[in-house]
Amino acid sequence: MPNKEYRILVINPGSTSTKIGVFDNEISIFEKNLRHDMEILNTFANIIDQYEFRKNVILETLDHEGINLSKLNAVCGRGGLLRPIEGGTYAVNSQMLEDLKKGYSGQHASNLGGIIAFEIASGLNIPSYIVDPVVVDELDPIARISGFSLIERKSIFHALNQKAVARRAAKELGKKYNELNLIVTHMGGGITVGVHKQGRVVDVNNGLHGDGPFSPERAGTVPAGDLVALCYSGEYFREEMMKKLVGQGGLVGYLGTNDALQVEQRIAVGDQEAKLIYEAMAYQVAKEIGSASAVLSGKVDAICLTGGLAYGKEFVKSIIDRIKWIADVIVHPGENELQALAEGALRVLLGEEEVKDYPGKFKTVKI
After folding, report:
1. What is the pTM (predicted TM-score) of this model?
2. How far is the first Cα of the chain from the last one, in angstroms, to the nearest whole number?
3. What whole-number distance in Å separates Cα of residue 201 and Cα of residue 194?
4. What is the percent of the chain with per-residue pLDDT over 90, rounded to a whole number?
């Protein structure tokens, strides 16, 4: 255990709530999910305009809970839709704030994380950070080739949780993250399978808009020709098709629910359709992991399963039965994003990892 104790405030904004936590090194001493009134949020023209409101709610909550801000050593926010960058912990700087405010890669509530962290930290004269945002891009050039010259494969995945779980697995294996070849699968509303080769995610499916297994809410890879035909059938507008792929795809499209527990309950009472679709989702996850193992030429130290769906014992067993021949499987259920943010900041504070300067020297390879 480190000799010095650091107190870190972590902030993870979502569309209608903001999760916050206070950690003494890796130990959580306070966590709360602050739900925001939609009527208040709707008064703001843009998501980014909410930062002052959300910051004040956070400060009021901390004051109410008796958290002394003067004892904080750092504030760490969820990274937003920034420029593509390599993984790691980044100090919030003026360029980052500018990109977050204008929504360099899009508008999303997570853009507020770095801004609020900076606002609170600057008033306390302490550092502010973000850790492993969804735009982490470490793909090998070969992984960017889609097969269609007008479209490049993109790196959009659950970087924060995947990297955190990979580091935990490395500790369990008694090695460093950058010494291992791991396949990390995040299974939540979206499902992403990342190939972690000695500390870099060299290949991963785009779990937001495109490829890989279907999930509770997303369609994943679908037959391209049939999709094109449907798009030009005249039956759907562009927005309707996007909703069918993201939000109304996967379990929602087949079974009318994104609740895996509800699906398991339906299976338990003999619902054969629910059983088939649920098994198909596990089948596709296992297939994607098998493909990922080929990227590493079969040299896989461990496979990690994480995210909310990893709580489902039968679902996890169905996956493991198909992939256990590749490598040992480590299961870390849940997302644990607040913990991951705290750990990212702590590594820098303890000198275990160098803080990175946004946007850094990292450049993606354009085809």
Report:
1. 0.90
2. 46
3. 6
4. 88
- Tens-place pLDDT, residues 341-362: 999 999 999 999 999 999 976 5
Residue 88 banded pLDDT, cuts 50, 70, 90: very high
- Note the pLDDT of residue 366: 41
Cβ atoms of 177 and 170 within 8 Å: the answer is: yes
What does DSSP say about strands 329-333 and 302-307: parallel, antiparallel, or unpaired? parallel
- HEC assignment per residue over the chain: CCCCCCEEEEEEECCCEEEEEEEECCEEEEEEEEECCHHHHCCCCCHHHHHHHHHHHHHHHHHHCCCCHHHCCEEEEECCCCCCECCCEEECCHHHHHHHHHCCCCCCCCHHHHHHHHHHHHHHCCCEEEECCCCECCCCHHHHECCCCCCECCCCCCHHHHHHHHHHHHHHCCCCHHHCEEEEEEECCCEEEEEEECCEEEEECCCCCCCCCCCCCECCCCCHHHHHHHHCCCCCCHHHHHHHHECCCHHHHHHCCCCHHHHHHHHHCCCHHHHHHHHHHHHHHHHHHHHHHHHCCCCCCEEEEEEHHHHCHHHHHHHHHHHCCCCCEEEEEECCHHHHHHHHHHHHHCCCCCCEECCCCCCCCCC
- In this prediction, residue 82 carries a pLDDT of 93
CB-count burial class (<10 Å; 0-12, 13-18, 19+) for 143: middle
Q: Dig out the tokens for 315 from the structure.
A: 């679902």
CA torsion 211-253-262-332 (nearest 10°) is: 10
Residues 6+ apart with CB under 8 A from 42: none
Task: Quote the pLDDT of residue 361.
Answer: 66
Contact 150, 98 (CB under 8 A): no
Residue type, 272: Q
